Amino acid sequence: MIVKPRIRGDICTTAHPKGCFENVKRQVDYVKSRPRFNVGKKVLVIGCSTGYGLASRICCAFGQNASTVGVMFERRARPKKTATAGWYNTAAFETIAKKHGLYAKTINGDAFSTEVKNKTIDLIKSDLGKVDMIIYSLAAPRRVMPDQTQVSSVLKTIGKQHTGKTLNLRDRTLAEVTIPCATQQEIDETVKVMGGGDWKDWDGTIGAAKDHLLKTANEITNEVGGVKAYISVNKALVTQSSAAIPIVPLYITVLYKIMKDRGVHENCIEQMYRLFGEKFGQKLSFDEKGRIRIDDYEMKIDIQQKVLDSFSRINNDNVEELADIDGYWQDFYEMFGFGFSNVDYDEDVDIDVDILSID
Q: Where on the phi/psi map is residue 248: left (φ > 0), alpha (ψ -120 to 50), or beta?
């Protein structure tokens, strides 16, 4: 099958197996080129197939030869329909890991479910005995609770609605968008999906969910013997989650422009390497809420002031000057395996790719 990108809304509905392999290989090569570190030799990554979760798994495996178990919820290829990018990413990761003699197995299913939790625990007990570190990098639009009721997360404001500029990435024009205020039920459901409840289960709206995560980190540290739980606040990047948030694409394109001009731009793999290879390799430092900040370059006062200045001046006449729209699209396409110069996208490829550890 000849695979081309098909864009629907804020997502690409196709993925390229060879392009995804190239995407993973480049991240592996980056980590291998950096100094080694040691933060845990047996690692569980919940949400391991894209974005920060994938980058974390790559860093742990190739930065310190860790054995990794991953949990994901991805779809393999069907007739005339490609697999998800996460499926191809994981297939590539396991193939490369095997060539390097590294243990890597993956569970595919709903990470919120008791069934997947038990399956993962059984695998760890039989193959590794225990893990030294759990990385929780799960983003989901909805969750089925233990009583089988379904709750959904929303991307809304708390307190009052917000109106601001947004960027139409397709025609590169600005518009105004209003984000409505969430109801209390929507806030509560978002916390259930994106907060720390499920994270805590593994160990023993977004703003509200993040507060709940911090509370959960403290509870895990205090209640689970010998375990320390940390929250890392990461840089704003093009991911399958961030692409769906109103106003965020405009912020990201403006931020990219400024950080690239300053020489401090980082992608997922560079962020995660700095977390594991540098932050954990030194004496950990925290912000006033006890969080590790690897968005520190992004949040520098001069950079944020420049972002605010650009936001105040940006319009349809200067949007190409003040926003890195090309950089956004490059990252967007690469997430799905497109846009790599050394991949032949006119080639007929086999879209049904196996993951070594999944039958």
A: alpha
What are the backbone dihedrals phi and psi of residue 16, each rounded to the nearest 5 degrees, phi first? -105, 120
Per the CB < 8 A criterion, the answer to whether 44 and 136 are in contact is no
- How many Cα atoms within 13 Å fall on the side-chain side of residue 179? 18
Contact 92, 25 (CB under 8 A): yes
- Of 66, 87, 67, nearest to 76 (Cα)? 87
∠ Cα 217 275 12 (to 5°): 90
Name 42's bridge partners. Answer: 67
Determine the pLDDT at residue 163.
Answer: 76
Burial-class residue 104 by CB neighbours within 10 Å (0-12, 13-18, 19+).
Answer: buried
Give the distance from CA 248 to its chain's centroid: 15
For the domain spanning 7-335, the CATH number is: 3.40.50.720
List, in sequence order, every beta strand (DSSP E) within 101-149: 104-108, 133-136, 142-144
- Say how many Å lie between the first and final Cα of the chain, rounded: 23
Query: Is pLDDT of 246 > 80?
Result: no
Is the pLDDT at 206 greater than 50, yes or no? Answer: no
Other CB atoms within a 10 A radius of the CB of residue 248 amount to: 18
**Contact at 8 Å (CB) between 358 and 106?**
yes
- CB distance 46 to 59 below 8 Å: no
